[in-house]
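thought: fold this chain, then report.
action: predict
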Amino acid sequence: MNRRSAIKTASAAVLGGMAATQLASCRQQNTLTGLEKKPFNYLKKGELFRNSSAGVIGVSEKNPHYFQYKGKEILLITSAEHYGAIINKHFDFVKYLDMLAEYGLNYTRIYPGAIIEPIGYWMSEDMMAPGENTITPWARSDIQGYIGGGNKFDLNKWDAEYFIRLRDFLTYANKLNIIVEICFFNCMQEKYWVWSPLQKSANIQGIGDCDHITFQTLDNGPLVQEQLKYIEKLIVETNDFDNIIYEFCDEPTTVLTHSHKAYLWLDKQIDTAIATESRLPKKHILAQQLEIGVDFACDDRVALIVTQYISLCWRQVGGVPALNSCYGYNKPIELNETAYIGSWIKEGSNDVIAISRLEAWEFMVGGGAGFNQLNGYFIPSNPSGENEYNRKILTGLRNLRTFLESFDFVKMTRDRETVRKSSIGASINMMAEKGRQYAMYIHHSFPVFSNGSYYEPNYGTYETVLTLRLEKGDYHVVFIEPETLKTLKEIDIKSDGGDTVLACPLYSLDMAVKINGVYTNG
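observation:
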């Protein structure tokens, strides 16, 4: 089967604007590899893309835009630490996971060891910069000289202590019904490279005798061999867990690695993962981030489309542009990295609580399957992220889950047709089961790209007027304040199947709207 044509239900109609043009171009480029794929038998009869084994977190059979776990459809919503929960051995992950569970958050992400960041690069106490507290899949050698402190790594030996820690983390997360996304790599920035165990000065084998850009290519054979061994080992060690997703690389070309070279590198990893799991009891869904020039959205080996940030920036496709461009592939879409709260978004200079809420509500009410608010409050000295700002952020995400789960969301899909007109300045996203239930989120903000990528809240006095095209029938409408879930107003309206005007009550930044059909024709 040609995996470029396997997702037959993907609709060109959903592709619009700049993102569609660029993504279509990328897909064309990616097919020009001149390589024949190995005939892995990775699709079950009737599958349009590779899904997980029974009981493992996977894509819903009822609605492929959502996940399924333990017999029901779920949404993944969280505000996660900066991916170092395993490699930073002084981080108390029990306290961290307990805090997520307290707020009903069910998702986290880890980088398992190929990427180590310089101390103080993003924050004074960064989860990905553990220094002398670094623990990775590779054991330490007897030779001193690792830049982060201690001995260099021996790539021929695995660290048993690391894998005990990894399994303990996954076991406790599973106990709390928290899904863990294991992302093997991030783009290798120049300042990171010397800190990675796979760089020549960090290991006793001298592997990684190349620059950081080459890291995301197949150009250095010995390095690629170690990368694939690392992926295989992690999959073998974690295959028995039901609460994990495997992702390959975040931001593979943001350091200007050639897109096609990065694509081939990822392609090799995906085949390696499938071949490895073919020998193991369980299958897990595979994920890859979408970038301009690196597009696996229509690849039938990849079940989860990963996006980052609110729009198109740094070659990345995220937020509403990603939903608009990729929804027709009928796969779950995830926003797994956002404004970095506590790092380049700080309380005092930024409205961190509103920024988090704007990103999360827009994406998830617009039809997203998963959301992660990147959170710098979770650090080794404060693993539970205890502070008033963080508790308000976590409350906002719990409110989002409560709002979405008040619907029978598995029957709903992204809706770009019901709203025909709106007041100027209102950004609106929604999902619907036409004629029966509608979820809507309205906000007023400006996208900011000068220091990261996020929404700047634009507070004001708003009374948005909407023109809706609802199915014929009677409807009950509830206007809700997202920050508190307080009901602002309830009304009943009637639609004759044509345009219906809906006037929102007064609000200052954002509003959620719930519309339920009282009865419908037929």
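thought: worth noting. The radius of gyration is 23 Å.
final: tokens above.
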